[in-house]
């Protein structure tokens, strides 16, 4: 039995007691057991959190820290996150329904992002132009943008935060985080860790609750300078529209319908294993899921047979994170059966909200399972004739988050990868991620984050100054 956590909120370094707010209960997606409850915040709490973040941003204890000191704090946070990875993973697994070993791996990967942010912060620098004119020099540097609203999803709450939060803090910004009402625990646990690491009160605040009561007023708040949002494309559009009213900076990572292209000369066993992992990992609840499969026509039948063989023994280990998502995926599966040929029959199991993966082929280009993000274990399959056909079909989507290419001809694989409209690519490789690599996005997939110094600069305003050299009397 997992430990049941009854969480409060964190505002200005103070834990807001759990019994002072209405509660939102969280049950394990598969077993239905109560695993957590969260305080249901309001606009009043948002206002208090933004005020605390703004005050902390102006306080010398944070404002005047050197990059080296901020780096030390971030690295200490990474150390503590790793030290508590088992507890953090237990929280994450209980709330999201993912296997414990997967959650442990995500905590470890997230801690590496914290370490990387701490390291690159030490290399932060400005620019000096000594001879702009006869008696003029110039300086360029970056200042923190201000209070950042960090709005997190329910599928990868810890790792998505780790891709952003340490870089936001490295920039010298302060934060008001709004985690998903389905998975707020790791966000709140991180607040306690940051306090122990030595971050000043108010630098990191967490307000839990529902979108209309917490997310919307946070996006609208005039004291918020920037919004970092990860979630659906439809909600991302609404966030961007709302942010435009107060001219906030916005960073969005949204949906995807990512292609995986398999040529006839590829290592087909390795490609098949990667394809299955690509659309079933995390129960298919992954924005970079490669859910559109393009296979060269000469091997299409053989590859379908491989998928049927390998998926016959596939045991679903992760449930849909919530009932609305489960119903949505089941509806997509039902639609897929009417839109195309069923290669692998998927559907509900007898284990809570768990779903068996489904594969469909012979789909029209306007079929819903081919064009729309399902966010579940559903794969749509088509064939192509040559490179040009593969590229055209792969790019025929409003999304552009990720893509994979499999080919024994490395020159061809690189040619195709360069033509694909995707921010993240894998060539003859599974979907590994590394802190050093930037993350981009095309079209409706949103605006990607950067890595390294440019990742810190994402949360900064650039400033320049002209200096007149004064002549001595």
Automatic annotation (TrEMBL):
Domain Aldehyde dehydrogenase: 19-464
InterPro entries per UniProt: Ald_DH/histidinol_DH, Ald_DH_C, Ald_DH_CS_GLU, Ald_DH_N, Aldehyde_DH_dom
Gene3D superfamilies, per the entry: Aldehyde Dehydrogenase, Chain A, domain 1, Aldehyde Dehydrogenase, Chain A, domain 2
Coiled coil stretches, renumbered: none
Active site: 253
PROSITE patterns in UniProt: ALDEHYDE_DEHYDR_GLU (PS00687)
Keywords: Oxidoreductase
One Pfam family matching this protein: Aldedh
Family: Belongs to the aldehyde dehydrogenase family.
Protein name per the record: Aldehyde dehydrogenase family protein
């Amino acid at each position: 039995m997992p430990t049941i956590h009854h969480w409060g909120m964190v505002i200005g370094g103070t834990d807001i007691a759990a019994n002072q707010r209405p509660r939102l209960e969280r049950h394990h997606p598969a077993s239905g057991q109560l695993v957590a409850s969260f305080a249901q915040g309001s606009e009043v709490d948002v206002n208090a959190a933004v005020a605390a973040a703004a005050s902390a941003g102006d306080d010398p204890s944070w404002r005047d820290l050197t990059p080296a000191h901020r780096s030390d704090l971030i690295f200490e946070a990474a150390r503590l996150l790793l030290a508590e990875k088992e507890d953090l993973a237990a929280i994450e697994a209980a709330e999201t329904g993912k296997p414990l070993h997967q959650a442990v791996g995500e905590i470890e990967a997230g801690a590496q992002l914290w370490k990387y942010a701490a390291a690159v912060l030490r290399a932060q620098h400005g620019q000096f132009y000594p001879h702009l004119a006869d008696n003029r020099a110039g300086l360029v540097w970056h200042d923190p943008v201000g209070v950042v609203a960090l709005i997190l999803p329910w599928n990868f709450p810890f790792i998505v935060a780790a891709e952003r939060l340490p870089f936001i803090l490295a920039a010298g910004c302060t934060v008001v985080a709004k985690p998903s009402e389905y998975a707020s625990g790791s966000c709140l646990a991180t607040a306690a860790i940051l306090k122990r690491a030595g971050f000043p009160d108010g630098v990191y605040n967490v307000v839990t609750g529902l979108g209309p009561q917490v997310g919307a007023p946070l996006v609208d708040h005039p004291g918020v300078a920037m919004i970092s949002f990860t979630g659906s494309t439809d909600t991302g559009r609404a966030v961007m529209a709302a942010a435009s009213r107060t001219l906030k900076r916005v960073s969005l990572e949204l949906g995807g319908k990512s292609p995986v292209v398999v040529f006839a000369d590829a290592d087909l066993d390795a490609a098949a294993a990667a394809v299955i992992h690509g659309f079933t990992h995390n129960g298919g609840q992954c924005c970079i899921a490669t859910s559109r499969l393009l296979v060269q026509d000469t091997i299409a039948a053989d590859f379908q047979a491989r998928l049927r063989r390998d998926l016959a023994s596939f045991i679903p280990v992760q449930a849909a994170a919530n009932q609305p998502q489960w119903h949505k995926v089941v509806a997509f599966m039902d639609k897929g059966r009417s839109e195309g040929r069923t290669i692998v029959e998927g559907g509900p199991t007898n284990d809570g909200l768990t779903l068996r993966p489904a594969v469909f082929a012979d789909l029209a280009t306007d079929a819903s399972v081919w064009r729309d993000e399902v966010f579940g274990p559903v794969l749509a399959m088509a064939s192509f004739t040559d490179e040009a056909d593969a590229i055209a079909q792969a790019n025929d989507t409003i999304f552009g988050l990720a893509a994979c290419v499999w080919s024994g001809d490395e020159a061809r694989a690189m040619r195709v990868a360069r033509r694909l409209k995707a921010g993240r690519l894998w060539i003859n490789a599974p979907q590994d991620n590394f802190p050093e690599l930037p993350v981009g996005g095309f079209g409706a997939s949103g605006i990607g984050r950067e890595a390294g110094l440019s990742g810190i600069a994402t949360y900064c305003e650039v400033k320049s100054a002209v200096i007149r050299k004064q002549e001595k009397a």
